Amino acid sequence: MAELQVGLESPLPPELAIGAGTALFVAGTCFAPGERIASLVLLVDGEEQPLGAFGMPRLETMHANGPDGYASGFWGIARIGPRPGPVALGLRARLAGGGEETAALATIPVRLPPQRLTADASVAVCMTTCDPPLELFRRQVDSIRAQTHTDWVCVVSDDCSEPERFAAIQEVLGDDPRFLLSRNPRRLGFYRNFERALELAPAGAAYVALADQDDRWHEDKIATLLAELGDARLVYSDARVVARDGRVLAGSYWSRRTNNHSSLLSLLVANSVTGAASLFRADLLDDALPFPPAQFAHFHDHWLALVALSLGDIAFVERPLYDYVQHGDATLGHAAANRMPAMRERFGALRRDPRERIRLWRMHYYVDACRLLQFTTVLRVRIGERMPAAKRSHRPGSSAARRSTAARPAGSPTGACRPSTPSRTVSAMPPMLPQITGRPWRNASRITNGAFSHHTEGTTTQSASAMQAATSVAS
Q1: Is the pLDDT of residue 423 over 50?
Q2: DSSP characters for 303-343?
């Protein structure tokens, strides 16, 4: 019997924080020399889980291993429940000629959260730093100190700033006992660093607010957000956009884009909740922590907003409560987040070389649509039936893992073969993302010219329209 030849296309994390449950994106290649794989499933601690797709075309694997490697691509989302020990991942293939084979993928140890800091205050402000501009950092710290609501502490999680800059951070904070500074043992990146800051938040705090290192809060920011929270799970405000020298660039962040905070699907497609503008009830962290694995370009504010809206409502204060500093070299800023591609740009994309368009389709599908699928899978694992039925958006037959029966034309570019009508349904995937699996190339062709930008604190991507494209495809 042929031994499975397995490789990973997407790296798995070296450790995994699980909490009440999480989800891992697993993608790679699997083939059995001389045999055809009739079905392929994911193994999580030996138990079978469905893949999103298998038998997908991979010309690079065929070039390296011969014809057997062509229909070898697979991907899926592994749903992982609470446990004290490591997670074992593998594959099980049932062969067309009879029999089955298994192969190990990885064993991933569990990461435990850090110990929470101790402090007595009703509001925990969670700030992250990494080599902050000192004049802006000092101004931000002073603006927090000047808050009219005084019952707060500020957790500062530093992501391995340079030693001289870290010493300067310590000098700015001084001996003020309301600031609790903690330095990461290794650099985590902004997404994981915000996760760590929230994990450090004192257990006694009733509310949590997020802060960037270089903005400036208006003195009534905390007081106003607390007053406007009401019965909502999270509240956020508008922002005034300023240059580094304080010049006002825009009186509102929402000059062109629609500021949605009521539709779960729309929020999933294009986040509008800015972390630095937000305050939420501390018990939201029971479901939000730990964050989903950092396998994609995830953003902390997007995830927190999705958890909040899945459980209740989000409120919005329609006036700026802080100054958002737009840096000239920022990857995402007010101008980028509000940019709407012109029709000429959208039609211009159709003139790209077909092979380049196909490469981009595949990239958008795996990098963008699967990113959102990971988010929704974690939401369903942790929140499940507590989410209102209308937000769960069940649709029969919404998504299924299917095997491609694509032909094998010589010289086709990677991923160029569009699968024909699926021959086998393996199993259903979470229904919150209808039609996101099974026909990636058809879905992806609607993605690349999307008009939506995904707003968070760090980047802009038109990829969020992947979700809208995926949900628009009829079964």
Answers
A1: no
A2: HHHHHHHHHS-EEEEEEEEEEEE--TT-SS-HHHHT----H
Determine contact, residues 91/41, Cβ cutoff 8 Å: yes
Measured CA to CA, the distance from residue 21 to residue 410 in angstroms comes to 44
What is the rounded distance in angstroms from the CA atom of residue 303 to the CA atom of residue 291?
A: 8
Nearest to 457 by CA among 327, 309, 308: 327
Residue 290 preceded by cis peptide, ω within 30: yes
In the prediction, which pLDDT does 361 show?
64
Q: What is the pTM of this model?
A: 0.81
Nearest to 137 by CA among 247, 248, 244: 244
Distance set, CA 74 to CA 28, 46, 80 (Å): 6, 18, 19
CA–CA separation, 114 and 109 (whole Å): 16
Task: Classify residue 384: in a domain, yes or no.
Answer: no
Q: What string of DSSP letters covers 147-202?
A: -S---EEEEEEE----HHHHHHHHHHHTT-TTEEEEE-SS---HHHHHHHHHHHS-
Residue 233 contacts residue 288 (beta carbons within 8 Å): no
145 and 80 in one domain?
no
Q: Is 213 strand, coil or helix?
A: coil
119 closest CA partner among 168, 77, 153: 153
The verdict on residue 372 lying in a domain is no
- In this structure, the answer to whether residues 100 and 216 fall within a common structural domain is no
Q: Cβ distance 274 to 455 under 8 Å?
A: yes
Could you tell me where the DSSP H helices lie in 365-408?
Answer: 370-382, 389-392
**Cα(92)–Cα(30) distance, integer angstroms:** 10
Cβ(37)–Cβ(30) below 8 Å = yes
Q: What is the H or E stretch that residue 301 is in?
A: helix 300-311
The CATH number assigned to the domain holding 186 equals: 3.90.550.10
pLDDT tens digits along 334-384 = 454 544 455 555 456 556 666 665 566 666 777 788 999 999 999 999 999
- What DSSP character marks residue 445? T
Q: Which domain holds residue 72?
A: 1-112
Query: Degrees (nearest 5) of the Cα angle 318, 319, 325?
Result: 125
> From CA 76, how far away is CA 58, in angstroms rounded?
16
